[in-house]
Write a structure and sequence with these properties.
Distance between the termini: 35 Å
Largest sheet: 9 strands, mixed
CATH architecture of the largest domain: Alpha-Beta Barrel
Structural class: alpha/beta
CATH class of the largest domain: Alpha Beta
Radius of gyration: 27 Å
Oligomer: single chain
CATH superfamily of the largest domain: Glycosidases
Number of domains: 3
Strand order of the largest sheet: 12-11-13-14-23-22-21-18-19
CATH topology of the largest domain: TIM Barrel
Shape: globular
Strand content: 25-35%
Length: about 675
């Protein structure tokens, strides 16, 4: 699907969670469709996600298949759909696929089974997991999906949890299908001897299930958009993506610990040919906690999503009695009014190409955290005000227009991709790589060793190391050897120039070799390059012999970011230079012949005890004043601050224009044009 879907144009979306057990005596007794939808109308919502079946296995529509929630007399889904239609609100039908407590309670043989022979049950939570290879699909899921689709003309589907837990299951149905397909018995020992095969079978299970569901829906209503939770997320399998017309990447700062995640996710999503929801929540700490963020925080979160090319979606929770909370929609309404003023400058905009971050990510996002090296690199680039897009491993496009490529240490590239990067640098591009990026175990060398100008030697015996000082690269950091809290790789230069050497720690701490801190001070300075530069054709390759990006994500050591930023700045001049602190985020987009500089201001409260109060709320954002901007583009002449419609005084420079942004509260948009 190209940019011909209505989904691109609907920026104010709410997902209304309604996982509801039957034991509350007041369950769904106060539901009224008109007042329910009226909350969305007043809050300027234009897409809602509405439940048809929840994790507990309760249906929320007039059904003949499955179990309707015992407290529900009305047709919850149908009545909300009909009322939403009156107000031009699109409706996405939510269906709980991978969790269904009633289904497995009534049919215990449908349970997923782990490698120890235990069923994957809730143990006091909502997570009762049916196997997608069991008759659960044929006897409940497909008949229900068919019934819902025939009965209601909704706009789209969200199928939640399309995967087996950790991509594997050892129930009798999985064992049967695996033996029939692969001609061998599926035993838990295969997780040790051929884990890739077992996991591939699990991923194929999800893909086939989604393919069957999508085909069922499209036969009945071809216009209905399909999606499964996680589709088009960075690292998601292609076969699963192919079943989804739009993407969804959950992104709650309270769950991930970083407000950067909206921006990072959107910078990947904007490179795709499908619209992708970046889904935050109203809750301060996790789905269903009945708290509410401030409007100030939601404005900031929404700005980072829409300014970077994502589609805003926020999760809410229906109360047990079937009503929504007025106070929540007052807050969401204020935040969506802020979005409405700005969305026309963001919808369908495309990014300005300058830096391509080519990186890896997990394909098991339900249970694994996002890749630390990828997100650490993105965090560095955001804080350094670099203009960048993100691509997944080999899935990067023609690099025309990009001036810089960054490869974090965990990236996985083919020989063909390595050859493309060699050509990029030879033609004048700049490449920055770290750690074991492009290391090939078969070769025992980097795929790009000739480009780096260094050859792999071996790993070091130390878990940490130091970089020796370099005048230019140490700008803004203390003139001392700087710690990288991660293991270095030993390399031997061939054609590269060494800018900083690796200094080993004095020793590996042991009983007889203890220091005041577990990390010893620096010891011997090695002959191994820590940071090197290599001229290659018309371009340049930079290499750092440590996993600096993952280290930065885990440690937040500011000096690591400053050294990397100085290294990049010493080898290219940015299209847009913004003189602002690191908590200011910048991004450049183009639309209808105009360039838009987005400037977003972030400030949060201090945390208390970090092991428990890990979430820093945003209560008030103090405006930042007098941000100086230089744009290196001789075709530009005019700068207008949107949505305030204020013309900014512009000075001509040797290679473009310069101006000062007088004030940024949360999100300022500078429209740049020829006249």
């Amino acid at each position: 699907m190209k940019k011909d879907s209505w989904f691109w144009d609907r920026m104010r979306q709410v997902h209304v969670d309604f996982h509801m057990p039957e034991f509350p005596r007041e369950a769904i007794r106060s539901f009224d469709a008109k007042s329910f939808v009226d909350r969305f109308v007043r809050a300027k919502v234009n897409v809602i996600g509405v439940f048809t079946k929840c994790h507990f296995g309760n249906a929320f529509y007039d059904n003949t298949v499955g179990h309707k929630h015992g407290g529900l007399k009305e047709d919850f889904f149908g009545e909300v759909l009909a009322e939403a239609r009156k107000h031009d609100i699109k409706v996405i039908a939510y269906y709980s696929l991978g969790t269904d407590a009633r289904a497995v309670r009534d049919n215990p043989d449908w349970y997923q089974v782990d490698e120890h022979g235990n069923v994957r049950g809730a143990e006091g939570t909502v997570w009762e997991l049916p196997c997608l290879n069991s008759p659960y699909r044929e006897e409940l899921v497909l008949p229900q999906i068919k019934e819902i689709t025939e009965k209601y003309d909704m706009d789209g589907y969200l199928l939640d949890i399309p995967y087996l837990h950790n991509h594997y299951c050892f129930c009798p149905y999985c064992k049967k299908k695996f033996a029939e397909e692969y001609g061998r018995e599926m035993k838990p020992e295969l997780l040790e001897t051929d884990r890739e095969l077992v996991v591939r079978f699990g991923i194929d299970t999800a893909a086939r299930c989604m393919e069957e569901i999508a085909a069922t829906v499209k036969r009945i209503r071809p216009h209905v958009l399909m999606n499964c939770n996680g589709a088009w997320r960075m690292g998601e399998p292609d076969r699963v993506n192919a079943t989804s017309d739009y993407g969804l990447w959950e992104s709650q700062p309270s769950a991930t610990g970083s407000f950067h995640n909206h921006s990072i996710r959107a910078r990947y999503a904007r490179t795709l040919e499908v619209p992708v929801q970046i889904m935050t929540v109203r809750f301060t700490e996790g789905w269903g906690l009945m708290s509410c963020k401030t409007a100030e925080q939601l404005k900031y979160e929404f700005a980072t999503i829409m300014a970077n090319g994502g589609i805003i979606n926020i999760g809410d929770q229906v109360l047990p009695d079937g009503t929504l909370q007025d106070g929540v929609y007052e807050v969401i309404g204020e935040a969506f009014a802020f979005v409405e003023e700005r969305e026309k400058y963001c919808i369908r905009a495309e990014s300005v190409r300058e830096v391509a971050l080519i990186a890896n990510n997990t394909n098991n996002w339900y249970h694994d955290k996002d890749d630390a090296a990828t997100f650490g690199a993105a965090k560095m680039l955001l804080e350094g005000h670099h203009q960048f897009d993100m691509y997944y491993n080999d899935d990067f496009p023609d690099l025309s227009g990009y001036r810089v490529v960054v490869l974090p240490e965990t990236v996985e590239l083919s020989e063909a991709s390595a050859a493309r990067l060699e050509a990029f640098v030879a033609d004048g591009g700049l490449l920055l790589s770290a750690g074991e990026a492009t290391f090939c175990r078969r070769r025992q060398n980097f795929l790009l060793s000739g480009l780096f100008g260094v050859n792999y030697l071996e790993r070091s015996p130390y878990g940490v190391g130091y970089l020796t000082e370099h005048d230019g690269l140490w700008r803004g950091v203390a003139r001392i050897p700087q710690l990288i809290e991660a293991p270095f790789i030993k390399t031997v230069p061939s054609t590269a120039e060494t800018l900083s050497f690796v200094q080993w720690p004095l020793t590996v701490p042991a009983v007889s070799r203890a220091f005041r801190h577990p990390i010893p001070p620096g010891g011997n300075v090695s002959d191994c390059p820590g940071i090197s530069v290599n001229r290659y054709g018309k371009g340049t390759a930079l290499y750092i012999a440590a996993p600096v990006f993952g280290s930065y994500w885990h440690s937040n050591h500011f000096w690591v970011r400053r050294i990397v930023d100085n290294l990049l700045r010493s080898h290219y001049r940015k299209y847009a230079e913004v003189e602002a602190p690191t908590h200011i985020e910048t991004n450049l987009m183009r639309k209808d012949g105009k360039t838009y500089l987005h400037v977003i201001n972030f400030q949060s409260n201090h945390a208390g005890e970090k092991s428990t109060a890990f979430y820093n709320p945003i209560e008030n954002i103090t405006p930042v004043h007098d941000i100086r901007v230089v744009i290196r583009d001789n075709e530009l002449r005019k700068a207008v601050m949107r949505p305030d419609n204020v013309d900014l005084p512009v000075e001509a420079t040797e290679d473009g224009i310069a101006f000062t942004i007088p004030r940024v509260h949360i999100h300022a948009i500078i429209e740049l044009s020829m006249a």
